[in-house]
Amino acid sequence: MRKIILMGLAVVLLAGCATPHPVRNITAEPVVGPAGRAVSLEEVGKAILRAGGTLGWQMKQMEPGYILGTLKLRSHVAVVDIRYTNKNYNITYKDSTNLDYDGKHIHNNYNGWISNLDRAIKTQLANL
C-alpha cells in the first residue's frame, strides 16, 4: 500500500512540473546602476550582453536598444526580445521549441530561465 501511495505522489509531482504556466515577461524593469547613478544606453546593452553570456544565452545586438537572446538546452530552445533604454528594460517571449507553448502558457522551465536572466541583468547593472 505504501508503495502505491509513493508512486501516486511521484506521478502527481512529475505532472505538476510539466504543467504549463503563463508565459513570464519582464516589463518596464527599472535600470538601477551602482549607487543609483545614471547609466548610458551603451552601458545597459553591455550589461545585458554579459548577463546573458554568463548563463549560456546567445545574445545578439540587433540595434541600439534591442538584443535578441537565444537559449539552447538539449532539444529545448527559448528566444526572447530584450528591449531597453537607459531607464528600463523588457524581456519578452519571441519563440520556442519543445517548451509546449500554446499561445499563453509554456513549460515552467522557461519562466525559471527568464527569472535567472532578469537577476543576472540586475547584478551586471549594479556592478557597472
Explain how this protein is built:
- The protein is an alpha+beta fold.
- 39% of the residues lie in helices and 33% in strands.
- The protein contains three helices and seven strands, in the order αββαβββββα.
- The protein has a five-stranded antiparallel beta sheet with strand order 2-6-5-4-3, covered by helices on one side. A two-stranded antiparallel sheet has the order 1-7.
- Strand 4 (66-73) and strand 5 (76-84) form a beta hairpin.
- Helix 2 (41-54) packs across helix 3.
- It is elongated, with a radius of gyration of 18 Å.
- It starts with a helix and ends with a helix.
- Residues 2-16 have low confidence and may be disordered.
**Unreliable spans:** 2-16
Q: Please count the helical segments.
A: 3
* Rg, Å, rounded: 18 Å
Task: Give a quick account of the main beta sheet: strands, pairing sense, barrel closure.
Answer: 5 strands, antiparallel
Strand content: 25-35%
What does the overall shape look like? elongated
Strand order of the largest sheet: 2-6-5-4-3
Q: From the helix content, strand content and strand pairing, which structural class follows?
A: alpha+beta
Helical percentage: 25-40%
Mean pLDDT: 89
**Count of extended strands:** 7
What are the secondary-structure elements, in order, as H or E? HEEHEEEEEH
What separation lies between the terminal Cα atoms? Answer: 58 Å
What key attributes describe this structure?
single chain; 128 residues; alpha+beta; 3 helices; 33% strand; elongated
Secondary structure layout plus pairing:
Blueprint (H helix, E strand, L loop, with lengths): L1 H17 L2 E2 L3 E5 L10 H14 L3 E6 L2 E8 L2 E9 L3 E10 L7 E2 L1 H19 L2
Antiparallel strand pairs: 1-7, 2-6, 3-4, 4-5, 5-6
